[in-house]
Prior knowledge:
single chain; alpha/beta; Rossmann fold; seven-stranded mixed β-sheet; 6 helices; 7 strands; 32% helix
Amino acid sequence: xxxxxxxxxxxxxxxxxxxxxxxxxxxxxxxxxxxxxxxxxxxxxxxxxxxxxxxxxxxxxxxxxxxxxxxxxxxxxxxxxxxxxxxxxxxxxxxxxxxxxxxxxxxxxxxxxxxxxxxxxxxxxxxxxxxxxxxxxxxxxxxxxxxxxxxxxxxxxxxxxxxxxxxxxxxxxxxxxxxxxxxxxxxxxxxxxxxxxxxx
Length: 200
């Protein structure tokens, strides 16, 4: 069994923004779906709150690493989120750094379909800047990133990556506004966006 960094010690841009979203998980929630779970960080965070978590990923190596860690309350599935036979009606759905791996509009529609009425969607995503108009943002991100490296070490996850993202921030913002009415899209400083939605 590989030696894993304890979750409490893990830091990277995606994890840091996800931690900001965790207070949005309702205290009454009992079921969760973690899309593109990787080696299980978000799934474990949700399970620690007492939720029964289904965690889905296509990468078997990532799932093997996830299963080597605490899996209490978590069911891991090696499956394609877009076509997997999932029961739906989840109280919480999380998707961390995964939507840029999927067809944007279709994946947002699938998330909406699987979420229970009153359920909460929490997304931390990656998107591409639009140059030259985003040059100032890019410079600010580089400076903030370098300063951050002086105060903490970033944890590098072992799961497959896709960079640069094939969608822009504007495309994600517009698609989410159309498909998830009332959702909140925020472009973050450090090459991420957050998207939250409570299903009517």
